[in-house]
């Protein structure tokens, strides 16, 4: 975090504040881990903190220290709205634009609080008084660590902070695999382990708690895998019916798209998931190397993200969405070649 932003943040936090910390819709491990990690830090400084998420989050994160205090906006609209309207400060974490919070957008736009953004997505919006944005960062959770260090408190990490930030970094880097994982990411992870984050236990809690239904749904997804060798592309589809037959719960399809990307020679992978309730198809995109799925998601699916991981949605039905996807690929033929 640069000196100017650090000075603004120090001034904002100089006296006890009522603070709300907000993550993005469909929160993932990084959104939850970074928000909770920051919440413990700010609480230790003497501020009053509430973490608010727009909607539900997956069961594999429900063991994290502090989850019991999270307010889910979709479940407690009045409480969440009141907290935001009453806040002195709002921290927005792990998203770059207020349209990522769903129906909370208007409430945030109309509140009187000052905003602080901590985020690693491309093209950050300019709503915050203090913006700490760095697209090279592995995760927002890593950035929260740097934020704490910039405020001179890097030696005072509690176990609760360490566990939350480690989980966020681990999940957003695909267990330290993605190219966003830097030497500094590993140094930060080491510091978090020293502060009490037990890597083996965190891995078990996140990755070894699958329900049998989720494993069967993965089987269906893998069965639906389609390879478009000509474009070094692979995609997976899941219909609402397939989800219903496997008692789908939020988070169950997390990571499925990576199986498509793991096929030899594939550099672009997509998963299309039917969501009848929202009347959309939710799309997750992944790539290897220089092919920007952030651009692809922005251009075709009103979405965004990072160069190698992005998402968006389509309001067409599943088969139309997939057909359109296939028809778009020839435009990218030159980029969709396996350089390895
Ligand atoms: P996932 O595919 O795991 O849901 O998301 C991958 C990345 O893309 C994450 O960084 C996420 O924040 C971003 N992302 C996913 N869906 C959307 C979307 O609908 N809009 C935008 N702007 N970003 C998204
Ligand atoms: Mn993230």
UniProtKB/TrEMBL annotation:
EC number: 3.1.3.7
Pfam families membership: DHH, DHHA1
Keyword annotations of the record: Hydrolase
Organism: Aequorivita aurantiaca
Residue ranges of every copy of the DHHA1 domain listed in the record: 238-326
DDH domain: residues covered: 18-169
Cross-referenced InterPro entries: DDH_dom, DHH_sf, DHHA1_dom, Oligoribo/pAp-PDE_c-di-AMP_PDE
Gene Ontology terms, MF aspect: 3'(2'),5'-bisphosphate nucleotidase activity
Leader peptide range in chain numbering: none
Name under which the protein is recorded: Bifunctional oligoribonuclease/PAP phosphatase NrnA
């Amino acid at each position: 975090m640069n000196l100017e932003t650090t000075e603004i943040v120090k001034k904002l936090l100089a006296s006890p504040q009522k603070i709300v910390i907000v993550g993005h819709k469909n929160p993932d491990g990084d959104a939850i881990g970074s928000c909770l990690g920051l919440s413990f830090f700010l609480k230790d400084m003497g501020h009053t903190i509430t973490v608010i998420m727009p909607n539900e989050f997956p069961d594999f994160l429900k063991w994290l220290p502090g989850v019991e205090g999270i307010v889910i906006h979709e479940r407690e609209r009045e409480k969440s709205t009141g907290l935001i309207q009453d806040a002195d400060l709002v921290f927005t974490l792990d998203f770059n634009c207020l349209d990522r919070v769903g129906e909370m957008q208007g409430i945030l736009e109309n509140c009187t609080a000052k905003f602080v953004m901590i985020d690693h997505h491309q093209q950050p919006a300019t709503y915050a008084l203090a913006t700490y944005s760095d697209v090279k960062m592995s995760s927002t959770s890593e950035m929260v660590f740097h934020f704490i260090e910039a405020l001179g408190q890097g030696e005072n990490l509690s176990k609760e902070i360490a566990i939350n930030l480690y989980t966020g970094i681990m999940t957003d880097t695909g267990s330290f695999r993605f190219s966003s994982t830097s030497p500094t990411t590993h140094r930060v992870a080491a510091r978090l382990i020293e502060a009490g984050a037990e890597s083996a236990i965190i891995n078990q809690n996140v990755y070894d708690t699958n329900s049998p239904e989720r494993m069967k749904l993965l089987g269906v997804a893998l069965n639906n895998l389609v390879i478009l060798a000509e474009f070094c592309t692979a995609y997976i589809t899941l219909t609402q019916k397939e989800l219903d037959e496997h008692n789908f719960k939020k988070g169950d399809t997390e990571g499925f798209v990576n199986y498509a990307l793991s096929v030899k020679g594939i550099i672009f992978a997509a998963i299309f998931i039917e969501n009848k309730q929202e009347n959309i198809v939710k799309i997750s995109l992944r790539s290897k190397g220089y092919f920007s799925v952030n651009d692809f998601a922005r251009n075709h699916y009103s979405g965004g993200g990072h160069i190698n991981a992005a998402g968006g949605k389509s309001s067409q039905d599943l088969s139309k969405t997939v057909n359109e996807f296939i028809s778009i690929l020839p435009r990218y033929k030159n980029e969709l070649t396996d350089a390895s």
